[in-house]
From TrEMBL:
This is DNA double-strand break repair protein Mre11. Homodimer. Forms a heterotetramer composed of two Mre11 subunits and two Rad50 subunits. Nuclease activity is regulated by Rad50. Belongs to the MRE11/RAD32 family. Part of the Rad50/Mre11 complex, which is involved in the early steps of DNA double-strand break (DSB) repair. Mre11 binds to DSB ends and has both double-stranded 3'-5' exonuclease activity and single-stranded endonuclease activity. GO terms for molecular function: 3'-5' exonuclease activity; DNA end binding; endonuclease activity; manganese ion binding; Y-form DNA binding. Its cofactor is Mn(2+). It comes from Haloarcula limicola. InterPro entries: Calcineurin-like_PHP, DNA_Repair-Maintenance_Comp, Metallo-depent_PP-like, Mre11_archaea-type, Mre11_Halo, Mre11_N. The lineage of its organism: Archaea, Methanobacteriati, Methanobacteriota, Stenosarchaea group, Halobacteria. Mn(2+) 1 binds at residues 9, 11, 50, 183. Mn(2+) 2 binds at residues 50, 85, 150.
Length: 439
C-alpha cells in the first residue's frame, strides 16, 4: 500500500487583508500539513500547485518554505509537486530551486515511483495553450498511477478544462487525478478514476467558510480518499438580518455574542433597517480583540445612502468594485494587479508591466481585449480586492476556485502602494539570484 498526503493551494506569502499575521498563517498551515505527514509516516507529500501566492515571493517566504521542506526531508518523506498559476514564471520555477537542493521533485511526464504507485505531473496550462497539449506519459511497471495537476476541471462546477478528455487521451491509465486550484475540496468519479480536489490549507477569501484541510490518498488494489482538517486561525462569520427599525447597535450586539479574540471577523448585513457605516462595526470588533474585521452591507441602499456603505477601514472593497464594473479582460486585470500590488517597488513597476505584457501577448494576442464595452473606460486609483479574481474577466464567480482566467482568490493590494524601504526592496527575490533563470 502507498499512502500519501494530497495538498495544494498553500499560497505561502499571501499577506491577506494587509496584515503580517495572516502572511505567517499561510506558512504555518503548510508547516502543520508537513508535520502531520511526518507524524503519520506517509509515503510522500503530493502538492498540486500554488505553493506560493505569486511569482515573486519575498526572501522570507522562500526561506520559510525551505525550512518546512527541510523538516520533511529529514524524515525521509519525498515532496512531489507541480507548478500552479499563481507562482508560474516564464523560465525556471521556484520549485526547481527546491529540487536542486534535494528537497522536492517536480513531477512531469516521466513516472516518479513511490511504493506501488507512479506519480506524474502536469503544470498549470493557460486555456489558450491547451488545444495543443498531447497527454503522452511514459509507461510504468507498478500497480497504480496518479496524475497531479492544477486548474479548474470539469465535472466540477466552474470547470473550464475537461478531466474526462485528459483521461481519454492519456497514454497512461490513471487511478486518480490529484488536483489543485479549486479551494473547495471535493471528489467525483469518471468511470474507474477518482478526480479530487484537496482544497486550500488556509482561507484565502471570506467565501471559504468550511474548515481547511487536505486529502489522504491510499493506493492498495483500490484507491481510497479521506479528509483531514488543519488547525488554522479562526474566522468568525456574523450574518445579520436587520428589521425595519434596526441599525448599527443591532449589528454590534450580534458581533458581541462571539469570542473574536485574534480572529478574522466577517460581518454580512441583510434585511431592512438604517444605513450603517461599516467602519463603526469594524472598529467595535477590533476593540474587542479581533485581528481583522470586515463588514459587507448586502442591502440595496438608495443612491443618496450608498456612500455610507463604503468602509474607510478597507477602501479596497470600493475600489475593487469599480474595477470589476469596467469589464476588464483577465489579462488586463493581471496588469492592474502588477501595477497596484504593494510588493512591487515603485522603481520596478514599469519594467515589470512591460515584461508581463510581453508574456500575455505571447500566450494570446487577443488577451488584452476588453471583456465588454465597459473596458474602454479608464481607471484612476482602482485596485484589486483581497478576494477578487486575479484573472476572471467578470470579476465574479466563486472566490474559492481560482485559475488563470478562472475564479482565483486574488492578491492583496492597497489604494496606494505603501512607501518601501531599501531593505523591503531588496527582499523582492528573483530566480536569477538562485538559478540564473530569466523570469
Amino acid at each position: 500500500m502507498t499512502r500519501v498526503i494530497h495538498t495544494g493551494d498553500t499560497h505561502v506569502g499571501y499577506q491577506q487583508y494587509h496584515v503580517p499575521e495572516r502572511r505567517q498563517d499561510f506558512l504555518d498551515a503548510f508547516r502543520r500539513v508537513v508535520r502531520d505527514a511526518i507524524e503519520g509516516d506517509v509515503a510522500a507529500v503530493v502538492h498540486a500547485g500554488d505553493l506560493f501566492h505569486d511569482r515573486r515571493p519575498t526572501l522570507s517566504d522562500i526561506m520559510g518554505t525551505l525550512s518546512v521542506l527541510e523538516e520533511l526531508a529529514e524524515a525521509d518523506i519525498p515532496f512531489l509537486a507541480v507548478v500552479g498559476n499563481h507562482e508560474a514564471k516564464r523560465d525556471a520555477q521556484w520549485l526547481d530551486l527546491y529540487e536542486s537542493l534535494g528537497l522536492a521533485t517536480r513531477l512531469d511526464a516521466e513516472p516518479t515511483v513511490v511504493g506501488n504507485t507512479a506519480f506524474y505531473g502536469l503544470d498549470f496550462v493557460p486555456r489558450s495553450q491547451r488545444e495543443d497539449l498531447e497527454y503522452d506519459f511514459a509507461a510504468h511497471d507498478v500497480d497504480h498511477a496518479a496524475l497531479v495537476t492544477h486548474g479548474l476541471f470539469q465535472p466540477f462546477d466552474y470547470g473550464d478544462w475537461d478531466a474526462g478528455e485528459i483521461l481519454d487521451q492519456s497514454s497512461v491509465a490513471f487511478d486518480a487525478l490529484l488536483l489543485g486550484d479549486n479551494h473547495d475540496p471535493g471528489k467525483q468519479r469518471i468511470d474507474e478514476t477518482w478526480v479530487t480536489y484537496c482544497g486550500s490549507t488556509e482561507r484565502a477569501s471570506a467565501s471559504e467558510r468550511e474548515d481547511r484541510g487536505y486529502n489522504i490518498v491510499a493506493f492498495d488494489g483500490e484507491t481510497r480518499i479521506t479528509r483531514r482538517g488543519v488547525d488554522t486561525r479562526e474566522f468568525v462569520f456574523v450574518d445579520v438580518e436587520l428589521g425595519p427599525e434596526e441599525g448599527v447597535e443591532r449589528v454590534r450586539s450580534r458581533v458581541g455574542e462571539h469570542d473574536v479574540e485574534d480572529a478574522v471577523v466577517i460581518v454580512g448585513i441583510d434585511g431592512d433597517g438604517d444605513p450603517i457605516a461599516p467602519a463603526s462595526v469594524e472598529e467595535y470588533a477590533l476593540d474587542a480583540g479581533a485581528l481583522v474585521a470586515r463588514v459587507t452591507d448586502h442591502r440595496e441602499l438608495a443612491a443618496d445612502e450608498r456612500e455610507t456603505s463604503v468602509s474607510f477601514a478597507d477602501p479596497d472593497d470600493a475600489v475593487a468594485e469599480r474595477v470589476r464594473e469596467l469589464g476588464l479582460s483577465g489579462a488586463a486585470q493581471d496588469i492592474d494587479e502588477t501595477v497596484r500590488a504593494s510588493k512591487v517597488a515603485d522603481a520596478n513597476v514599469a519594467d515589470t508591466v512591460e515584461q508581463r505584457v510581453q508574456e500575455l501577448v505571447e500566450e494570446d494576442p487577443d488577451s488584452l481585449t476588453a471583456a465588454d464595452s465597459a473596458g474602454d473606460e479608464s481607471v484612476d486609483g482602482g485596485l484589486r480586492d483581497d478576494e477578487a479574481s486575479d484573472s476572471d474577466p467578470s470579476g465574479g464567480g466563486p472566490t474559492a476556485a481560482e485559475a488563470d482566467g478562472g475564479q482565483p482568490t486574488g492578491t492583496t493590494g492597497s489604494d496606494e502602494r505603501p512607501e518601501q524601504s531599501a531593505d523591503e526592496g531588496e527582499d523582492q527575490s528573483s530566480m536569477d539570484q538562485f538559478l540564473g533563470g530569466d523570469d
